[in-house]
Design goal:
The structure holds three protein chains of three kinds. By secondary structure, chain A is α/β, with parallel strands linked by helices. Chain A is 32% helix and 24% strand. In chain A, the strands form five sheets. In chain A, strands 13, 16, 19, 20, 21, 22 and 23 form a seven-stranded mixed sheet that branches. Chain A has a six-stranded mixed sheet with strand order 6-7-8-3-9-10, sandwiched between helices. In chain A, strands 2-1-4-5 form a four-stranded antiparallel sheet, with helices on one face. In chain A, helix 3 packs across helix 4, helix 11 packs across helix 12 and helix 13 runs parallel beside helix 14. Chains in contact: A-B, A-C, B-C.
Chain lengths: 505, 360, 306
């Protein structure tokens, strides 16, 4: 097995009720970009956590450079030359860039020397970064640079990247790829996790495809069509959502000059946002995470209050009304975070139905709750949206991400909203559920509701929106018809390359 | 190695079993403690838990159960509302004292007039006193973002000093030959919180506690406000999304718990205690915290837990006089109960597993 | 008792003494909170330290052994909190309260034989030349060792948090425990160590009250000092240097009101003795507007699920 940097044989890891990885085997060669492809829940994360020493496999073995490799903890992985760029959860907001980098290193030099090295590396690879800035104030793209630099400073032999492009604009993705190609030219192998097929075709030398915890195939992406890979990944084809032609009605919701400071220390302020959505129309709002999506949803849902006329629903200023009053007037919302925001994890589905539907669906009288009616409405949601659950009394946290998301969207859709705002409606949801949710949004619009879909998934937005715009640092771009938009145009609307530059060779 | 594994949803069975398990473990550890103190552990445990209920002098102790249990239940019901919403009123002891002072103050102000309106006025004043004392941490929290735990607790010490000042000054009995303490309200018919049925221990405070239990039960299970309280405690962001106004909830929870604690203090000073004195407060406000948790913040649970805790007070006194068990041992015993309860509570949400040896 | 006059030099000197117990306890809690754990059991750990220190000092005749025992007792009690919150994943607020209630009960039981006894005296560190400087000498250079220990601890903790690797990791755990775990740091182990350190410091603070400040044993003698120490951490915005400043302010208020009492001022004693608690509330009001400095993971339960 010469040339193999890391080979994995029969790795298995089971969690209660689910086998996350079932005898997974594959090998990465030195200096190649190897893709790990699979749907959400296919077991990609568990697999890389085992390679990085965060999770111990139940059985199976790994070899690195021909020697047995079984890291007990990330520290051991790092000293063996394995580094990882995380998708979430690995930066410390209140600390400086240099401190964040130091925390990811085994034996960091003194902070001053480290700062110099950070500047050098960021210069070489085209990732400009000030070592003394506080990480909480950085954009998503800049935060990723911190992670990458943290890895590069340790001269890794294998760099694991978990969904690195989900936080980047198309232009930034190009620059990242240039950096990665430079690294592979220096002999570094990259394990690249993604479910974006075009990216993998552009970047990767080999791909291993996972489905439901098992290796279902390997391919050479450049020689394989995206469609063929998608079929291996998903297992069967899904019907693309059907769009009925529809006539647009009068303006349902209008936002004019909405500016809001963010309550959180590291949030994004909304700056002079204006748009209008007509009845029957779907407005897609794209943008890289952390550019004001959560804040915009909060401003629309009523969790954050604005001046009365900044938001007008059918002509009436509702900027100062709270969530309950807005719901009563027909403006419903579904936030991105399912557990803890859109639903209470430890409460039953029935109780979670009451969360937003109490007043609109007549689930209470004089403040006293009608639990029977609530249960009936919950059953209706479960049936209409094919929510897989043992019953309406099950706690929300016991449902899978996709099923809970179907419940959350179903809860709002079935209340017959006049305006529905959703944020990341299919994030972390399997393809079948995602298709169902998109179809439900389109059906809602076909029946005359105005739909605002905030998402970071450009394919999704292109699929369902009539018009498209993007959030960038709290500002909204111009709004353009979705049909016929090019990737370059979309990228520029999202803010271009945010000052990144191509690697200096 | 033992390993914790999160359950898909909270276990119903363990929700009910954990308090019982905690009581059993505490009894075993308590027996060991008493043995270590050189007392017969079996005798000590039976003296505490059996004698007051079924012993020779049970006819005397059983009413005591209601007298000691009522303030505990009344205060704990109020606290449980806040605890469920993540609003921590730790200063019930202070609100209890102030309720007693305002309640007794109204009574003493009317002395020696006799009228049926005096007692109801005292009840209102007691509730108001506790309410206003709890409004201080509430308003400071909303206006300045101060931590209600620390402020309400500091106010306990302030209330204790105020109590001393009143007992020695303003409210001192002018006919008390210079001894500290107020007039005895038990000798002032219009202000006396007397037993409703002689020898039963049943006074107005017991009635109030029962009403509070029923009120809390309906609130939490049937009313949108109770739902919002539970929601805020479990998922604060979801609560704001649902339209809950956190400020209102802070005012309601702190206000209600303060008013109930004030009521408890008022019923105590006008009845069992009889007068405002320096050592009027005996820690009900703190023990009620244990009661609230032991009752799983559930109204019916709190009722049972309050009676159990009252039993340890009475049995403890009995063990003190019969077996010479130190008073502190009972205090420790109560503290242990809360400890073990919190420790076994993990079983409600997690499963304990023996992890398999690693297969290489 | 001097009537009508308060000697400012003595006032400042006794301020240093009055500040020491809450300074020690607050420094310990500062480290615990920087690690992301809120331990409300400071009062309980202090009173356990007070009785452990007192009992050992009386029985061995050695105040030094007393302080060692106090640190040990405080740490041992905090271990219970660590087990509850880090292994049984119990609510930190409830566990801290349990610790206080339990500690008060246990200390009362342990202290039964010690009421009314005098502890062995502790020599003051009379620094020959410096101690003779007028004004500054008695204020700064004529105290017992623990006062200087407290001051040293302020500097040590400040330097540890700011410059050392251990301090960086501790802050990281308090800031984002999921990220720290993902990088391979042992979140639970680090937090348990921080909790034990906090317990030991609280124990020392308690023993300082029973062995030096009062010095004798009475039930519940810490009288809220542990809670004031908790408030002090908020006041200090989680910075070691400002804990010292805060401790001196509280020490000053305590000493001043005692002096006013002794001076026989017209206000009843009960009202004067409210002042430390009222000042605490006032300080909380002033300082709480800016909560941005609080460690982001403070009070949150950590369970490495996957």
């Amino acid at each position: 097995m010469t040339g193999d940097l890391l080979s994995v044989v029969g790795l298995t890891k089971a969690y209660p009720g689910v086998v996350a990885n079932d005898a997974v085997s594959f090998a990465i060669r030195e200096g190649e970009v190897h893709a790990l492809l699979g749907e959400n829940g296919a077991g990609k994360s568990t697999l890389v956590k085992m390679i990085y020493g965060l999770v111990t496999p139940d059985s199976g073995s790994m070899t690195l450079h021909g020697a047995p490799y079984a890291p007990a903890e990330p520290r051991a992985a790092r000293s063996a030359g394995v580094a990882m760029v995380f998708q979430h959860f690995s930066l410390f907001d209140a600390m400086s860039v240099a401190e964040n980098v130091a925390l990811g290193m085994e034996e960091p030099p003194a902070l001053r020397d480290l700062a110099t090295r950070i500047r050098d590396v960021s210069e070489t690879y085209g990732l400009p970064l000030d070592p003394f800035r506080t990480v909480g104030g950085l954009s998503a793209g800049e935060r990723q640079r911190v992670e990458i630099i943290r890895c590069l400073l340790q001269d890794p032999k294998l760099l694991i990247m978990d969904e690195p492009t989900s936080v980047l604009t198309p232009q930034e993705v190009d620059i990242l790829f240039t950096t990665l190609r430079k690294l592979t030219a220096e002999g570094v192998a990259i394990l690249y996790i993604s479910h974006k097929l075009e990216e993998i075709r552009a970047l990767c030398d080999h791909a291993t495809i996972l489905r439901l915890g098992k290796t279902v195939g390997t391919c050479i992406p450049r020689e394989t069509s995206a469609r063929a890979m998608a079929e291996m990944m998903v297992g069967s084809a899904f019907a693309a959502p059907a769009r009925a032609d529809r006539d647009l009605g009068p303006v349902a919701i209008e936002v004019a000059g909405l500016s809001l400071t963010s309550p959180g220390q590291f949030g994004t302020a909304l700056k002079d946002i204006s748009f209008a959505v007509k009845e029957g129309e779907v407005l897609g709002i794209g943008g890289v995470a952390g550019n004001g999506q959560d804040e915009l949803l909060a401003a629309l849902s009523g969790e954050a209050l604005a001046v009365p006329d900044a938001i007008r629903l059918k002509g009436a200023g509702i900027g100062r009304l709270g969530p309950s009053e807005r719901r009563a007037r027909g403006l419903l919302t579904a936030p991105e975070e399912r557990l803890g925001h859109a639903a209470a994890p430890d409460m039953s589905l029935i109780e979670n139905t009451v969360l937003t539907a109490a007043a609109r669906e007549n689930l209470m009288r004089n403040g006293f709750l009608k639990w029977g009616a609530a249960e009936a409405f919950t059953r209706k949601i479960i049936a209409a949206f094919d929510v897989r659950t043992p019953g309406p009394g099950t706690a929300a946290r016991a449902l899978s991400g996709g099923n809970l998301q179907k419940f959350v969207i179903g809860r709002e859709v079935l209340q017959r909203p006049e305006v529905l705002v959703v944020n990341q409606p299919t994030w972390g949801v399997d393809a079948a559920a995602a298709a169902a949710i998109r179809q439900a949004l389109l059906d809602l619009a076909a029946n005359g509701a105005a739909v605002i879909c905030i998402s970071q998934d450009l394919d999704e937005l292109m699929e369902i929106s009539d018009r498209f715009c993007a959030l960038n640092e709290g500002r909204l771009s111009d709004i353009k018809p979705a049909e016929g938009l090019s990737v370059e145009e979309i990228g520029l609307m999202m803010g271009g390359s945010h000052g990144m530059e191509v690697a200096h060779v | 190695m033992l390993r914790l594994e999160k359950r898909p949803q909270p276990s119903q069975v363990w929700t009910y079993l954990t308090p019982l398990l905690a009581v059993v473990i505490t009894m075993i550890m308590g027996a060991a403690l008493f043995a270590a103190l050189g007392k017969d552990p079996v005798a000590a445990i039976t003296t505490i838990f059996w004698e007051p209920l079924f012993g020779e002098f049970a006819f005397y102790y059983r009413p005591q159960l209601l007298i000691k249990g009522a303030p505990l239940v009344l205060i704990a019901i109020g606290l449980s509302l806040g605890f469920r919403a993540g609003i921590w009123n730790i200063g019930a002891e202070g609100q209890y004292i102030i309720g007693a002072l305002t309640g007794a103050g109204v009574g003493l102000a009317f002395y020696p007039m006799e009228s049926w309106v005096i007692f109801p006025l005292m009840v209102l004043a007691g509730a108001f006193g506790g309410w206003i004392w709890a409004m201080i941490p509430a308003v400071l929290k909303l206006r300045f973002g101060t931590n209600e735990i620390l402020v309400s607790l500091m106010l306990v010490y302030v209330a204790e000093k105020l109590l001393a000042a009143m007992a020695l000054g303003l409210m001192k009995n002018p006919e008390g030959m210079g001894f500290p303490g107020s007039r005895n309200l038990r000798q002032y018919d219009s202000a006396h919180n007397a037993e409703l049925i002689t020898g039963s221990g049943m006074h107005w405070g017991v009635v109030a506690a029962m009403i509070a239990v029923i009120f809390a039960y309906i609130l939490l299970n049937r009313h949108i406000l109770g739902y919002h309280i539970r929601l805020t405690g479990q998922a604060p962001r979801a609560a704001r999304f649902a339209g809950v106004r956190p400020a209102r909830l802070v005012l309601f929870c702190l206000g209600t718990s303060g008013a109930l604690a004030g009521l408890a203090g008022m019923f105590e000073v006008a009845g069992p205690a009889g007068q405002v004195s320096i050592d009027f407060n005996v820690g009900y406000g703190f023990t009620a915290i244990i009661v609230a948790f032991l009752g799983r913040l559930h109204p019916v649970g709190i009722l049972l837990a309050g009676l159990l805790m009252a039993l340890t007070y009475i049995g403890g006194e009995l063990a003190q006089s019969n077996l010479g068990l130190p008073a502190a041992a009972i205090q420790l015993f109560q503290g242990m109960l809360l400890f073990f309860l919190l420790a076994v509570d993990v079983l409600t949400n997690y499963r304990i597993r023996l992890s398999r040896p690693e297969v290489a | 008792m001097e009537f009508g006059s308060i000697n400012p030099v003595l006032l400042l000197a006794s301020l240093m003494v009055a500040a020491t117990p809450i300074l020690l306890a607050a420094l310990g809690e500062l480290v615990v909170e920087r690690a992301g754990v809120l331990n409300l059991g400071v009062e309980g750990m202090m009173i356990i330290g007070a009785i452990c220190g007192f009992a050992v000092a009386v029985n061995t005749g050695s105040p030094v052994l007393g302080f060692v025992a106090a640190a040990g007792g405080g740490a041992l009690l905090s271990l219970l909190f660590a087990i509850l919150t880090q292994f049984a994943l119990a609510n930190q607020v409830a566990s801290g309260l349990a610790l206080t209630l339990f500690g008060l009960g246990l200390s009362a039981l342990l202290g039964q034989g010690y009421v009314g006894i005098k502890p062995p005296p502790i020599g003051k560190l009379d620094i020959p030349l410096l101690g003779d400087i007028p004004l500054l000498g008695p204020v700064l250079f004529s105290h017992d060792l623990m006062v200087y220990f407290g001051l040293t601890l302020v500097v040590a903790i400040w330097a540890m948090l700011k410059y050392s690797r251990a301090g960086l990791v501790l802050r990281a755990v308090g800031e984002n425990h999921d990220a720290a775990h993902a990088l391979g740091y042992k979140v639970v182990r680090i937090r348990v160590l921080a909790i034990l350190f906090g317990g030991a410091c609280a124990g020392l603070g308690g023993a300082y009250i029973s062995l030096i400040r009062v010095p004798q044993w009475t039930e519940g003698m810490t009288a809220g000092a542990g809670w004031i120490a908790l408030a002090l951490v908020v006041f200090a915005s989680w910075k070691a240097g400002r804990v010292l400043l805060g401790a001196w302010i509280f020490g000053g208020v305590t000493v001043l009101q005692l002096n006013l009492q002794a001076a026989g001022i017209a206000i009843p004693v009960e009202y004067l003795s409210m002042s430390p608690y009222l000042i605490t509330i006032l300080v909380l009001v002033i300082m709480s507007a800016d909560r941005s400095r609080a460690p982001a993971s403070l009070g949150r339960i950590f369970h490495a699920s996957q």
